[in-house]
Design brief:
The chain is mainly beta. The chain has two helices and 30 strands. It comes from Russula ochroleuca.
């Protein structure tokens, strides 16, 4: 049986940094990459619809609505991308690379995290786009938002959890449950918590509610590991994404695999066939019908590995029952 998956034509030339589907259509996919581009793909036509060139590697991109996207990267500039007119506007600058760009519907703002140790809020319609800047103790590596919460992964394995309506101090500060460097972060679709992943093949599932009864539910587990000729191989987990309806999640690793997990019952629901390169980025469509997979070199083997790395590839998979928890009901 062939798997319901298509390879997208004309992928980026260098490593894929982030993927996001349009909030209005599972046919439109935004892809940022280290080749200094953000590309918009039409999945139905299997073609690149638009390409936005930047001055340096793009580390993160996000939609705010169906016709506007935002991007940031190594040149420290936040850009607004008008997807229909194909215009690009510089909204402002950080003092160092922008590592993460998110849209907060709760704050109706673009939120950027940077290696300059700040998180900034932006309103593209305002005369001065930057609305506020918030100092953090360390570089921002990853961020995600759900509802009124903003979760920030800092360089030292610390996590700051903010309420976007009250950014003067974090609601909670937590140390990672994982011993090694954070490689991915994603918030649960139901707003109850988040998952993080590390370079040493582990994922931690965390909950926001600080009560002891809820905190007892948190756990970490090993994954993206293989035993080859009696030798254990441990691979970084590079990407996490929660399904918008079922709240199950996908993980992608440098072992070139993608797995679907039901974190409530602590089980893997499915592992897909291997890809041709490490899985660097993942995204579910807003309707939950598709999963985008970016396979590309993730610098685990340094410059030497980069010399022999294949061109990145992009896949979009049509999803079935494998992403749904057993006994799931909409109630």
């Amino acid at each position: 049986m062939t798997e319901p998956q298509q390879e997208i034509k004309a992928p980026p030339f260098d490593s894929i940094s982030s993927l996001q589907f349009s909030p209005a259509s599972s046919n439109l996919l935004l892809v940022s990459a280290w080749d200094s581009t953000v590309r918009l793909y039409d999945i139905a036509a299997n073609e690149e619809k638009t390409k936005f060139d930047h001055r340096a590697a793009v580390l993160s991109t996000t939609f705010s609505d169906a016709s506007h996207a935002y991007s940031g990267g190594l040149d420290a500039s936040l850009r607004e991308l008008e997807l229909e007119s194909e215009k690009i506007h510089a909204l402002g600058q950080h003092d160092d690379a922008i590592s993460s760009v998110r849209y907060s519907s709760e704050a109706n703002a673009i939120v950027t995290g940077s290696w300059d140790r700040t998180v900034r809020f932006w309103d593209p319609r305002a005369a001065t786009a930057q609305q506020s800047s918030h100092q953090l103790p360390e570089r921002v590596y990853f961020m995600d938002t759900v509802g009124h919460r903003l979760v920030i992964a800092l360089a030292s394995r610390l996590f700051h959890i903010f309420d976007v309506r009250k950014m003067d101090t974090p609601e909670q500060t937590r140390e990672s449950s994982l011993k090694f460097l954070t490689r991915a972060l994603a918030c649960m679709s139901d707003g109850q918590g988040y998952a993080t992943a590390s370079v040493e093949g582990r994922i931690a599932v965390e909950y926001f509610d600080p009560s002891p009864a809820i905190q007892e539910k948190k756990y970490a587990f090993k994954c993206h590991r293989q035993t080859i000729d009696d030798v254990d191989h441990v691979w970084p987990v590079n990407a996490l994404a929660f399904h918008p309806t079922y709240n199950t999640f996908a993980s992608g690793g440098s072992d070139t695999t993608v797995s679907i997990w039901d974190h409530k019952v602590k089980k893997r629901l499915r592992q897909y066939t291997r890809y041709n390169a490490p899985v660097a980025a993942l995204a579910f469509s807003a309707d939950g019908a598709r999963l985008a997979i970016g396979a590309s070199y993730t610098w685990d083997a340094g410059e030497e590995g980069a010399r022999t790395a294949e061109r990145p590839s992009l896949f979009v998979r049509e999803l079935g029952e494998e992403v749904k928890p057993k006994g799931w009901s909409a109630g």
